[in-house]
Amino acid sequence: MSYFSNIYYGIKSLLTGMSVTGKYFVKAPWGTITQYYPDNRDTLKMFDRFRGEVVMPHDENNLHRCTGCQSCEIACPNGSIEIIWDRVVDETTGKKVKVIDKHIYHLSMCTLCNLCVQACPTNAIVMAQNFENSVYDRTQLTKVLNKPGSKVHPDVKE
Ligand code: SF4
Ligand code: SF4
Predict the structure, then answer these.
(1) Best probe residue, ligand 2, of 55, 63, 67 (max atoms within 8 Å of C-beta)
(2) Which of 11, 93, 124, 130 is a Cys-bridge partner for 65, taking CB atoms 3.0 to 4.6 Å apart?
(3) pTM for this entry
């Protein structure tokens, strides 16, 4: 008996799958879901939840929000982030403060889990949607996220 019921459920499952395929083949009522990449590169819009890589936004004055606190480095489960920092004397207070030298990000190791972004107390890093990261030399996937000459925004405290 189970022999015939297996055949029945097999055919039923096949027809269910084929009906979905057929619906999209003829005309999907909720629009086309196929992306014509790379022909649509100029108009391509990724989904809001898509995570492409970690980036550090800078404003028009080359200021970022990273204090070098290392929370992202600690939160990263596979060592994709390395923070190189230093302490310098703050000219206004005379106290030594932590400053970031380099925020190093290894995209080649990153699983895009977003834990570093969630761990950052100053919202200094975000997920960008760029995904065209094919390179011949994997060292190009190691990036310094703080731009040359950039500084931490004065409103952001350690
Ligand atoms: S997204 Fe995840 S794996 Fe990638 S750097 Fe952040 S914490 Fe590490
Ligand atoms: S990106 Fe955020 S969590 Fe990482 S070192 Fe900078 S301030 Fe700290």
Answers:
(1) 67
(2) 124
(3) 0.80
112 vs 16, 52, 74, 118, 127, CA distance in Å?
A: 34, 7, 15, 12, 8
DSSP lists the bridge partners of residue 128 as 53
Say yes or no: domain 53-152 is CATH 3.30.230.10.
no
3-state secondary structure at position 136: coil
Q: How much of the chain is helix, strand and coil, in % rounded to 5?
A: 25, 20, 55
Per-residue pLDDT tens for 43-93? 888 888 999 999 999 999 999 999 999 999 999 999 999 999 999 888 878
Q: What are phi and psi of 5, to 5 degrees?
A: -70, -35
Ligand 1 centroid, distance to 143 Cα (angstroms): 13
